[in-house]
Write a structure and sequence with these properties.
11 helices; binds zinc ion; 6-stranded parallel β-sheet; 7-stranded mixed β-sheet; alpha/beta; Quinone Oxidoreductase, Chain A, domain 1; binds NADP nicotinamide-adenine-dinucleotide phosphate; globular; 350 residues; Rossmann fold
């Protein structure tokens, strides 16, 4: 099946319309008409070759929501018309230890990403959600139980939501815990909403003065403009956990100073250039940790979607037609979106 998509032929080229091929759904597959797709900063890193190894043509997009249009004979739990989502993972080996434990993101054979992973389907690598339809093995398709009218705002949960939910759960964020979220972009704004919903005292760290009130509206109890030394100093040694979502290389030391003894700052940002090495003394004195976290497994992604549906949590979005994608990327680089661009995939047919 040939479908319309948007992608790039090289890292220094704008995205442009292209026709791509989707496999005919097999017995284990679900075919989905994509209604909306969120725009993750990872899409920009990948398509503009800020990360190594981009395969072209590159069709990004791993915050996919839409409706089921066909279901393979061996697929349970889905029917035509269901609201569904696809996140960053479309396959994995299903046999290794991490896969057995529901952590497909750490598959020992390497996960198959929704875009830029080598596969048998044309053109030899996966193509993502900036397209009309996608065909995915049913084990990697998520159920959406939000209201239909919320569908566009649910899309960012498929990456920004799970990437923040998973570490917040792993480090047991909840009532009585003081939690920092650094960088109030697509990931960070979900981090604030989720940590708040889990009952923590949430402090948002931003470099954007314009987000001071906006972060409170998201559910932050306090906001710190991280370039203001005095504001930072007031929180020294007080955090149980910090989730750092910043998309660019920056000095980690000012945040390590804010951690309590035995506490962790988890990095989820994946910037083009490495952070400068932190001051080791800041880790020694206080037995502090720097950690990382990668998206989340399929079962945990479903848990996150159900948690968000129950608590009425969606993303704050700005909807764009696909024709504005390059302009949206330029604004993303300037942290100029509150807080996630979402593509209206109907615009592919415009
Ligand atoms: P985003 O919407 O661009 O948000 C990043 C935020 O970082 C910005 O809004 C800004 O927040 C802050 N920031 C940007 N440049 C900065 C700088 N030079 N110094 C300090 N702060 C800066 O991006 P996103 O989609 O949330 O993604 C964030 C990062 O996570 C990206 O690198 C992405 O590739 C990565 N990611 C990782 C995973 C994973 O599994 N680990 C999953 C998805 C995405 P303020 O305006 O509030 O300062
Ligand atoms: Zn992403
Ligand atoms: Zn595996």
């Amino acid at each position: 099946m040939i479908v319309k998509a948007y992608g790039a032929y090289a890292g220094d080229k704008p995205l442009e319309p292209m026709d791509i091929e989707r496999r005919a759904p097999g017995a284990e597959d679900v075919e989905i008409a994509i209604a909306f797709c969120g725009v993750c900063h990872s899409d920009l890193h990948q398509v503009r070759a800020e990360w190594a190894g981009t395969l072209y043509p590159c069709v990004p997009g791993h915050e996919i929501v839409g409706h089921v249009t066909a279901v393979g004979a061996h697929v349970d739990g889905f029917k035509v018309g269901d609201m569904v989502g696809v996140g960053c993972i479309v396959d994995s080996c299903r046999h290794c230890n991490p896969c057995d434990e529901g952590m497909e993101q750490f598959c020992e054979k390497g996960l198959t990403g929704t875009y830029n992973s080598v596969v048998a389907d044309a053109p030899g690598h996966t193509l993502g959600g900036y397209s009309e339809r996608i065909v995915v093995n049913g084990k990697y398709v998520l159920k959406i139980s939000h209201k239909e009218e919320d569908l566009a705002a649910v899309a960012p949960l498929l990456c920004a939501g799970i990437t923040t939910y998973s570490p917040l759960r792993h480090w047991q964020v909840g009532p009585g815990k003081k939690v920092g979220v650094v960088g109030i972009g697509g990931l960070g704004h979900m981090g604030v909403k989720l940590a708040h919903a889990m009952g923590a005292h949430v402090v948002a760290f931003t470099t954007s003065e314009s987000k001071r009130q906006a972060a409170i509206d998201l559910g932050a109890d306090e906001v710190v403009v991280s370039t203001n030394r005095d504001e930072m100093k007031a929180h020294a040694g007080s955090f149980d956990f910090i989730l750092n979502t910043v998309a660019a290389s920056h000095d980690l030391n000012p945040f390590l100073i804010l951690l309590k003894r035995d506490s962790t700052m988890c990095l989820v940002g994946a910037p083009e250039h490495q952070h400068p090495s932190p001051n080791v003394m800041l880790l020694l004195f206080g037995r502090k940790s720097i950690a990382g976290s990668l998206i989340g497994g399929i079962a945990e992604t479903q848990e996150m979607l159900d948690f968000c549906a129950e608590k009425n949590i969606v993303s704050d979005i700005e909807m764009i037609p696909i024709q504005q994608i390059d302009a949206a990327y330029d604004r993303l680089v300037k942290s100029d979106v509150k807080y996630r661009f979402v593509i209206d995939n109907a615009s592919l047919r415009a």
